[in-house]
Fold Amino acid permease.
Amino acid sequence: MLTIIMLMLSGFDTSNYGHSASTFMPYGSAPIFAATTASGIIFSFNSFQTIINMGSEIKNPEKNIARGIAISLSISAVLYIILQSTFITSMPQSMLQHSGWHGINFNSPFADLAILLGINWLAILLYIEAFVSPFGTGVSFVAVTGRVLRAMEKNGHIPKFLGKMNEKYHIPRVAIIFNAIISMIMVTLFRDWGTLAAVISTATLVAYLTGPTTVIALRKMGPTMTRPFRAKILKVMAPLSFVLASLAIYWAMWPTTAEVILIIILGLPIYFFYEYRMNWRNTKKQIGGSLWIIVYLIVLSILSFIGSKEFKGLNMIHYPFDFIVIIIVALIFYYIGTTSSFESVYFRRATRINTKMRESLNNESKSSH
């Protein structure tokens, strides 16, 4: 907020937005979509995941999960829009007239802009903040990713030592340390923040593809289950979310799209190794239920490769018709995904737990009356 206030006080020129569509979007509309994934905008909205992943520990989940997601996304959206608006309106008109927006190349946009406007103390503060600020996000992700690894260990697809719980604090300490090591390797390999943000955003979006199809499949499999949290417009939001996630993956541009998808598919040998150790007990069913997503990721890579030049493809499908193709293909695979479910041991376990929960709630209701 201090950055927003100081930059707005130092300069506020609304003419920087332009006076027509050609000046407002001098490079067309495609870069707007590309920036959504490639520059990490999607990553900045990622905090809502923590609310969902920690949902079992939230009081009054039927109301507070929805509230938490709405508040998280709203705060992120408002702050991001104001920050970007401030950056645009604070830019000296002389620089834009000389070289245009493509001639502006800041290593640290807000800090460099503060120096340009003569607010040196703010620039120093921003450099410090750039180091301190990620700690908040880091702390929440430490909690979430540690639990994810523990869940994977419980499913039998990673070494058992990674899911070991600390007896004193009841946290998956080994998983947290392992995630820290992986994080350091990632930061070392990707020295450029822009590249790392694009890779993380795209990988996150691939994970988002499974959410809409899974929730609809589960609703079909367990229509009478007791659900404290109910989303009333899932029939609309689920396919819409799947389509938007697919488009956002495409916006990551070739070859980032294919590189991230290849890294994810490379995890299959690890999966097959642990399936072999479990004597291929449920492999056929699991492959049958998940083959659609593997094929879809490959199809998305091909579409990215032959897509429009605006997204670094071969321009065999011109912009914006590439979006139409992605939407149609996404809806086809969405339908396949929602009909590829099967009753696993985890679903049967969830059914038993849900039945006990329903009985407990009924007993509490009777005792209160």
